[in-house]
Amino acid sequence: MMAVPSTRPPGVAPVVAMVGGGQLARMTHQAAIGLGQTLRVLATAADEPAAQVTPDVVIGSHTDLEDLRRVAAGADALTFDHEHVPTELLDKLVAEGINVAPPPHALVHAQDKLVMRRRLTALGAAVPRFVALDSVDDLAEIDAFAQRLAGSKDAPIVVKAVRGGYDGRGVRMARDLADAREIAAGYLADGMPVLVEERVELRRELSALVARSPFGQGAAWPVVETVQRDGICLLVVAPAPALADDLAAAAQQLALRLAAELGVVGVLAVELFETTDGALLVNELAMRPHNSGHWTMDGARTSQFEQHLRAVLDYPLGETDATAPVTVMVNVLGAPQPPAPNAMTMDERLHHLFARMPDARVHLYGKAERPGRKVGHINFLGTDKDLKDPTKLRERAELAAHWLSHGQWRGGDDAERKSDVGVPPACGGEERR
C-alpha cells in the first residue's frame, strides 16, 4: 500500500484531539507517546483519567460547540473516547474543515440504536427483530409485536432507549408485557424514543473488533468472547473458545464490511449474539476503542489504541495477530461497599497481587473507587493448554480482579494459596487482608 504523504511542516509531531477524558483517552495517550504524537483531550475536569496524564488538556463540554472548536484547533484529527457528541455539532465542525474521525454520518450508527438497526437491516446484516416506538400512543405496538414473535403475548422482550445508553444503562429486560409498557412509557415520557426487541436465545456474546483507515485499509483482530454481568463487560477471552473457523471468519468479514459500508474511520467494535442455533446477530456498534479490545494491549502485535491513532491519521495499519495462544482480560470493578477509611490502598493491593501473580498485566485508570465503576483491567496471557480449556486462566483472572476490588482473596486465603502453584507468596509471607 502506498503511504499518504504528510503536509505537516518538518519537525512538527501530529496532534490528535480526543473528545472525552476517560480511561479510553488515557490509554490512547499511552499509545501516542510511543508514536511520537500528542493526544489532546477534551475533559470535563482536571482529575479525569486522561487529564491526569496528558499535558495537552482542554476543560469543557462535549455539548458546547466552542469547546469542541478549542480542542480541535490545529489538530490533525478529532476523534472520540465516547459517542455522546451531538451529531449536529459534528456536522458544523466538518463544514469548517475539521477532520472528524469517524465522520458524523458514520458515528450516528453508534449513537442511535434505531438508525443502526434500520441501516444494518438494509445492508442485509442479521439483527434481533424489533419495533420502534415514538410516543406513548404507540405502546399498544408492544403487545402486537410480542404476538408476532411467538404467536402469543408471552414472548420475552427487551426495551431500549434509542440514544444515550452504555454499560447496561438504557437497556431493560422486561418481566412481562405490563412491565415492558411501563419501562417504555418512562423513556417516552422523558422524550426518548424506544426500541423494543426480541430477547434472543443466546449461546454467548462475541465481539469482532476491526479498524479502517481513510485510505480504505482494514484490519481485524481475532474474534473474542465477552462475559457480561448486569450489562457490564466482566471478562473477555481472546480468541473466543471453540468458535468454529468459518463462524469466526464470517464475524470478521461482517465487521470489515460494515466498517466500509458505514464509512468508519478508526476502530469499530461489532458486538454480536451467537444464538443457540449457531447464527450471528449484531447487537451493538461502537466506533472507538472498546472494552472488548483491552486484551490487545498485551495480547496482540498492535493494540487497539495504537491502531486507532494509525487509522485516524491514515497511517498503514499494524498487524493484529495474537502474541499468545489465549489472553484473558478481566475488568476491575469497584466493590459493592466503598473502601473503609483504614482499608488497604490500591497501591498496597497491587503490591500483594504482583507478589502472588507476577504475570498479571495490570492497567489502572486513576479513578476513585465507587461500587461497580470500572477502575482498571488485568490481562493474563495463556498457553496452548489454556487455549484448549481457559477455565483455570479465567478463574485466576477473576481472582486477581476480586482482590484488587475488595482487598480480600475470594474463597479464603489458604485455599487460594494452594491454587497458585509456583507463584511466590506475598512479601513477608502473610498477606494483609
Protein architecture, described:
It is a single chain. The chain is an alpha+beta fold and 433 residues long. It has 14 helices and 17 strands. The strands form three sheets. Strands 9, 10, 11, 12, 13, 14, 15, 16 and 17 form a nine-stranded antiparallel sheet that branches. Strand 9 and strand 10 form a beta hairpin. The radius of gyration is 22 Å and the shape is globular. The N terminus and C terminus are likely disordered.
List the helices and strands and how they pair.
Blueprint: E1 15-19, H1 23-34, E2 38-43, E3 57-59, H2 65-72, E4 77-80, H3 87-95, H4 104-111, H5 113-122, E5 130-133, H6 140-150, E6 157-161, E7 171-173, H7 177-189, E8 194-198, E9 202-212, E10 218-220, E11 224-229, E12 232-238, H8 245-262, E13 266-275, E14 280-286, H9 296-299, H10 304-312, E15 326-333, H11 346-356, E16 361-364, E17 374-382, H12 384-388, H13 391-406, H14 413-419
Parallel strand pairs: 1-2, 1-4, 2-3
Antiparallel strand pairs: 5-8, 6-7, 6-8, 9-10, 9-11, 9-13, 11-12, 12-15, 13-14, 15-17, 16-17
Helix pairs in contact: 1-10, 3-4, 4-5, 11-13
